[in-house]
Design goal:
By secondary structure, the chain is an alpha+beta fold. Helix content is 14%, strand content 30%. The two termini are 32 Å apart. This is Histone-lysine N-methyltransferase.
């Protein structure tokens, strides 16, 4: 069984979505994990044998056999600087840091709605027709774009 809690927060026309998924198992059911099972003395993080890593997916510390030492959870393991939203007069929304950041340091994961090139083009034409000059899209690869206009985190 899976229990889903969805928290939606609207601010200035944008929607911030926080999703929490809690999986429960039937009594007597055995727990399966996607991570590599490591002997206790070798619990130093997931390695190449980790199924999640080989599928290009991140582990969840709550179920990974490596627990907090898992090295396949990049965004959860990185200390992120404090960031707040910033409204600019001519460039729309941005983010402002509240502390110094070293060059090349990770700041925040860019989150938004995944759309294809066709949907991206339709949204850009709609923005042009409605004189919207601010858009928040990032092309990830061919035919995959993140649109952070309406569904995003602070990025």
């Amino acid at each position: 069984r899976v229990r889903v809690a969805l928290q939606v927060e609207e601010a200035s026309g944008a929607v911030t979505v926080a999703l929490r998924v809690v999986a429960t198992r039937k009594s007597g059911a055995r727990r399966r994990t996607a991570g590599s099972m490591l002997p206790h003395e070798e619990l130093v993080g997931c390695r190449e044998g980790c199924l999640n890593r080989s599928l290009l997916m991140f582990c969840d510390a709550r179920v990974c056999p490596s627990g907090p030492t898992c090295s396949n959870r990049p965004f959860q393991c990185i200390k992120q600087p404090r960031v707040v939203p910033l409204r600019t007069r001519e460039r729309g929304w941005g983010a402002k840091t509240l502390e110094d950041i070293s060059e090349g340091a990770f700041v925040v994961e860019y989150v938004g709605e995944l759309i294809d090139d066709k949907e991206c083009e339709q949204r850009l034409w709609h923005a042009k027709r409605t004189d919207e000059t601010n858009f928040y899209m990032m092309e990830i690869t061919t035919n995959v774009v993140i649109d952070a206009r309406h569904k995003a985190n602070i990025s």
